[in-house]
Design goal:
- This protein is of the alpha/beta class.
- Helix 3 packs antiparallel against helix 11 and helix 8 runs parallel beside helix 9.
- It is globular, with a radius of gyration of 22 Å.
- About 45% of the residues are buried.
- Pfam families: Aminotran_3.
């Protein structure tokens, strides 16, 4: 097949994009006077746009996805080989890469037993919500059907997932939502909701218990949480928080669903974020970093005890999980995921994440000493948030437009960073950093230097 010569014309590509592509999370009015960004190549943490400009990506693809970096030929080769051998068969049948990856994945997740394949984090979370509802219908007389979710957490873009969205601006205008989803308070002590608490983790858990008792423990089927809140401000839990939550789940027979779509596959320096806190989940969902964006894949992982609730002897009953994911049957996903996992293991990327994460943390603390606009730095591994404030004493959040200018200044300097994006009214004031797990000391220092210069340019 021959392609038109215009495909080698950057100006024409930009115009085709401007005329026909609807970008995610974007107000297109801006493109009436400015070019949409178009990227053409990536290597490691580096991206090149259609005009040949090089940028350092500190966001792993804009949405914390490309964990092992760009340009991995071995993953492309694995996908190529699998697609030639067998590209697809519905998930009602098995496959070689699906079987092998499930086995390898579960080796990293003691206590978990089954993998259900899908193609996005939203879909993976929807599967859990459906499983919880079906368990309620078949084993609890329809009673334990409610799902608790946390303020500031995000679980996906579908209407079911948005029903569990703790970010008001992300779900605004899309209601009415699915009934039975109940919000619990966030656990960000810097924005304390329990001002007199001597033990903030305990106070947050006590508030959850009060909601459980208000709703009725016999009505609540599951609690859905990110191990570290991602897009809601990179919120690490206070001490004692997770221990108390697990106690509540055991006491009131509530299933624990951990959303690892962002934290999973090494982002925090462990295979999964929940493993930093000794959590024993009933469900774990994952997507983004599972194949580092080289193929679409998501996994809903459960214990054998959950799986057994959908398994009966009668062949004509309706107790099995009556669900399908069409592209959960695309075998590019597990093929890419297997090679992605091998790279993380063979290149020691969990250890590199811890080392480079410590360097990044130290650099950010240094910035905090030089810039009064930094109210708090929080995170783990290569997953950090910098909350910007107008006043450290009052903790008044910095205006969102100024935060956007800081991001823009970093981009002008050739470094891509993120921020809380139209998620939380008055609190879209956190810069977000998630460089690929292959980041070097030079990369980490450049990220810090670009933020340093941007803060100086925007705030003095």
């Amino acid at each position: 097949m021959s392609f038109p010569a215009t495909l080698n014309d950057p100006a024409h590509i930009v115009e085709m994009d401007r005329a026909h592509v609807w970008h995610h999370l974007t107000q297109h009015k801006a493109f009436e006077t400015a070019e949409p960004p178009v990227f053409v190549e990536g290597r490691g943490l580096r991206l090149w746009d259609i005009h040949g400009r090089e940028l350092l990506d500190a966001t792993s693809g804009g949405v914390w996805t490309v964990n092992v970096g760009y340009g991995r030929r071995s993953i492309a080769d694995a996908v190529h080989a699998q697609l030639l051998a067998l590209n697809y068969y519905a998930g009602s049948a098995g496959s070689v890469p699906g079987s092998v990856f499930a086995t390898r994945l579960l080796e990293k997740m003691p206590g978990m037993s089954r993998v259900y394949y899908g193609n996005s984090g939203s879909e993976a979370n929807e599967k859990v919500f459906k499983m919880v509802r079906q368990i309620a219908a078949q084993h609890h007389g329809g009673r334990k059907w409610k799902i608790l979710y946390r303020e500031r957490d995000y679980h996906g873009t579908s209407l079911g997932a948005l029903s569990a969205c703790g970010q008001p601006q992300r779900c605004a205008d899309y209601g009415p939502f699915v009934p039975g989803f109940v919000e619990i308070p966030h656990c960000l002590e810097y924005r304390a909701q329990f001002h007199d608490a001597a033990d903030y983790g305990q106070a947050c858990a006590d508030a959850i218990e009060a909601i459980i008792l208000r709703e009725g423990p016999d009505t609540i089927g599951a609690l859905c949480l990110e191990p570290i809140t991602a897009g809601g401000g990179v919120i690490t839990p206070p001490p004692g928080y997770w221990e108390r939550i697990q106690d509540l789940c055991r006491r009131y027979e509530i299933l624990l669903h951990i959303d690892e779509v962002v934290c999973g596959l090494g982002r925090t320096g462990t295979w999964f974020g929940y493993q930093n806190y000794g959590i024993r989940p009933d469900f774990v969902t994952m997507a983004k970093g599972v194949a580092s964006g080289y193929a679409a894949i998501a996994c809903t992982v459960t214990t054998e005890a959950i799986f057994d609730q959908f398994k009966r002897a009668a062949p004509d009953d309706m107790d099995y999980f009556r669900d399908i994911s069409t592209f959960g049957g695309c075998l590019a996903g597990p093929a890419a995921a297997l090679e992605n996992m091998r790279i993380i293991e063979d290149e020691g990327l969990l250890n590199n994440t811890l080392l480079m994460g410590a360097r990044l943390h130290a650099n950010l603390l240094g910035l905090m000493g030089r810039h009064a606009s930094i109210g708090e730095v929080r995170g783990k591994g290569l997953f950090w948030g910098i909350e910007l404030v107008a006043d450290r004493t009052t903790r008044a959040p910095l205006d969102e437009t100024i935060v956007q200018r800081v991001v823009a200044e970093c981009r002008k300097a050739g470094v891509l960073i993120g921020m809380t994006n139209r998620s939380l009214p008055s609190f879209n004031n956190t810069l977000c950093l998630s460089p690929a797990l292959v980041a070097t000391a030079e990369d980490i220092d450049r990220i810090g230097e670009s933020i340093d210069r941007a803060l100086t340019a925007c705030l003095g």
